Amino acid sequence: MNNIKTRKFPSRSFGRKYWNKPDRVAYLFMLPSILVLFVFAIIPLMACLVISLFDMNIFFTDTSFTGAHNFITAFQDTRFWNALLNTVIFVLFEVPLQIVIGLLTANALVKTMRVQYPVLALVGSISETSRMQVRVAQEAGAKVVEMNIAELLRGGDIQKAAREAIELLHYGQDVVVVTAREHEDYLEAVKVGKEKGMSRTAVAKYAQSRIGELSALILKEAKVCGCFLTGGDTAISVNNYNHAHGAKLAEEGLPIIALIQLDGGDYPGLPCIVKGGSIGDREALAKSIVYFKERM
Which of 133, 207, 142, 131 is nearest to 168 (CA)? Predict the structure, then answer.
């Protein structure tokens, strides 16, 4: 019994294993197109070549082999050369023109139909430079939402500013969130903070914390193509509230203004432009919004 040899039959899964490779599966996907090409292009072309060697009527009832006689007759006919010239002109001029027009039309449709998300700017700085940049961006079409720090210190609801920003973003509007529209708004926040026993530094830290919290509320409900962050403390707060592990420097988006990408967290890879409060010209924010749109 021990000397009996058993025959091994192929596994039923042989076919499955054979085709379970990307290069072989590719041929299966190509098969329908190849069949169509053969039926409607290659086979008719070969049939035309064979028929050209015969003299026959349209019913194929009276046929005789003539070899190259039909080709010789065609080459001696001026109508053949005129038709050939027209074909060459068509190929050299009409076909490229149609391709160019088709590509331009397709490119225009892609740009028109492509979903372009708005930009969210979070301006925690109260410097005159930042306020000027906000005004220029507003003139360029961005909508400004104020997160009034004095009102929040009095017990106001941050959801009010969040809802306003989210609604605007849903309509495709670029949104700039500020903690103070004018310097007087900042002084009002400092006054309210002082009444509550808070120093200027404590009020500033409170404002940065709330702007980070606001960013998390907004990003949870609205899709943006990028964030503009004014001030290192603002960037840190946004990073923390969105649970990012850190940030990766991607490139210099504009002169002395860095483009980073959030590392991990709720929105990994989210592009953010970070700049100091007093850095950049008056158009820095407006240019950054355009930069985001062109980059995406």
Answer: 142
